[in-house]
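User: Hi! Is it possible to get a structure for several chains at once, not just one? Here's what I have:
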Amino acid sequence: MHLLSIDSLSDDQIATILDEGERWFSYNRQPRRNDHRLDGLTIVNAFFENSTRTLLSFEIAANRLGAQVVTMQVEHSSIKKGETLEDTARTLNAMRPDILVIRHSVSGAPASVAAIMDCPVINAGDGVGEHPTQALLDAATIRQHFGRIEGLKIAVCGDLKHSRVARSNALLLKRLGADLRMAGPESLIPSSMEAMQIDEAVEGADVVMMLRVQRERLEEDLGDAPGEYLSRYGLTEDRFAQTAEGAVVMHPGPINRGVEIEGSLADHPTRSLIVRQVEMGVAVRMACLDLLTASRLN
Amino acid sequence: MHLLSIDSLSDDQIATILDEGERWFSYNRQPRRNDHRLDGLTIVNAFFENSTRTLLSFEIAANRLGAQVVTMQVEHSSIKKGETLEDTARTLNAMRPDILVIRHSVSGAPASVAAIMDCPVINAGDGVGEHPTQALLDAATIRQHFGRIEGLKIAVCGDLKHSRVARSNALLLKRLGADLRMAGPESLIPSSMEAMQIDEAVEGADVVMMLRVQRERLEEDLGDAPGEYLSRYGLTEDRFAQTAEGAVVMHPGPINRGVEIEGSLADHPTRSLIVRQVEMGVAVRMACLDLLTASRLN
Amino acid sequence: MHLLSIDSLSDDQIATILDEGERWFSYNRQPRRNDHRLDGLTIVNAFFENSTRTLLSFEIAANRLGAQVVTMQVEHSSIKKGETLEDTARTLNAMRPDILVIRHSVSGAPASVAAIMDCPVINAGDGVGEHPTQALLDAATIRQHFGRIEGLKIAVCGDLKHSRVARSNALLLKRLGADLRMAGPESLIPSSMEAMQIDEAVEGADVVMMLRVQRERLEEDLGDAPGEYLSRYGLTEDRFAQTAEGAVVMHPGPINRGVEIEGSLADHPTRSLIVRQVEMGVAVRMACLDLLTASRLN
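Assistant: Yes, the chains can be modeled jointly so their relative placement is included. Here is the combined structure:
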């Protein structure tokens, strides 16, 4: 089995990943971690697009389960020598990894690669496609905090058109019974999507999930003056005051302080779950690696 | 002992590497691999020239034997700060690796480094010099497929002048008793080499080993129009029809589809050994690492 | 506890690191190294400034103690996406490393990061700040060679203004009782520092520690003609002849042969400790990693 998109997961698998993710979260807080269940297995991280946090997160997750981890980064790739993605996949497959984790700037690239691989493939972000492990870690973080996801009012705000994080989260959180509200600048909302104004989305919300806006888009697509994005589409203290009691702020990172979110909210000691998301990220990826290799070995 | 060139190996050592390579090939197909014979040893990969497949192949090979693997890539190197190669070698040596794997764009660089190191050095490709582990994995792939190398008609076709793969393969396959035929564009044949036309070389051949042509050379050295290289010097279906019954196609990769080889031949389900070569690559490198560390520890 | 500067270490801790460093030095010369005391711990190397030898040294040191090692390099960092250093630190901290090793081009960056991290932080070089593990390995090398540091005449020569190596060494060696002499081009001496002419500094010295001069500074700051730096400020055979009997040459590397040091002195079989410094580097870093994790686990 592969982990390419939220829809590729059964309800049971999602439940297992969230449960196990929470368990690994506690495990990682121990002073020593001596789990070796992936001993003798090779995890290959094929990152065709730069990433710090996602790559580190997968590397640490795989190490903590005792796997052998090998990372290939795009700038060293023979892609540059004109090799097709399919030929690269055949090459990687011939090295007999036990899991391939792939990030690629082209939507659908992980699925094309998975069609060739004999081992499970995890999509670690593909173009404007999906980023399923991010959605899973977000769901696990919400569930850990609130004890449930069903019935929560969750606002996802920002560049909905280009965000694979928004796409995967919308699919997963809706499936888990959340009351979803999408909001963003008009020019950054896909035509097929029902969206609202940010003030409407945030009102009474239990969770406000802000998306990163590409700085390049601020000027090009939005003709934005400095600070304008924050006041029009970002999460300010004023807007956050309109949320439900006990509401929390989330963000997949890295954050642009003062652009899509006010710095004081990002740093809020009890209302911000942003750092918690990163911690849950390692844990949920451990759960994913474990689930996928178990499905392969049994 | 070092593994710098084909001539640096005794007949016995070559036989051991091919035998052990085949054994590791089967081993790697197991669901778990728990060999730890290089536990406690440090393998340093010093890659002064970019490479995806060769670096990954060595990293995975070393990991599968339980070694500690550290990789240094050129763009992070103090070479750029004006350090001489010899001073870099002295530095690496002082860190007491148990094997140094080196790729370098200058022919002879691995030998210069080996003269300084106290540990075995493996040449993973040096300029237009040699690439002995590629030749060994090619020989192991051929032997696994045909059960022998002696007496086989093997055509090596392409840019013979700049190919270290061609050089190492010619030395090794001749030594193992193959009937070698070299072919390529006239301007890409070393003056000292006896070569023939590709049609002549391919006729009745058991193995056709196509070399990668640098796209830059197509225009610069050959004044080549698009598609012209394939029809004049590449492996087309028509040419392949002239080979012996049961003939196979090989290529060190990455391949330029439609340039030196027709895509349908590269993908041929029974006649193409190209993906098999990659798989054998990890296995043969495990054999090399094992042989060289054993020679050091005994 | 962190290892950010020489002053952050107690006398006892310095003594422990030097003692243990010498012990690991011998240990690393064994054919196999099977220490696993950091098994189950995660070491993250966050290098925001390129480095070959220091990064390799830390990676090998951590591997030799059985730790899981993950390396993040600047060019893949979300720093480029505009994330603040503090946010990067919060992200790294959330991944729950057991030690963070950081190199950064801004002085004080490791201290800012350490203020956020829950685990020990090692400064692997910060701007024109400090490089404490380099000073520790230098001290260990001197002590191993002479059996003591107290009372030795040690000349530190070169670009004192920009050298974090000089700064950390001056602090440490003075504290250990050495008779320190600093020398360098007038324009490269901090106004607060008492320095002398190189000929004066070298006369009767037991140790001459030459600093690397940035090639860019030669022209820009010094208006230096080729070879002029060596004759005016570098270590020539003539100058070395004025040192004490049994004097040794040191250099943190990478060296510029013929610029700050004559090649024949760098290579001197008995008087040069330059390669020994690199070897001691791995050993002293093992001691530091061990000390810091022990302080955390107990």
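The beta strands of chain C are 42-47, 68-73, 99-104, 121-126, 153-157, 179-183, 207-210, 248-250. Chain C has two domains: 6-130+278-297, 132-273.

User: Great, thank you!
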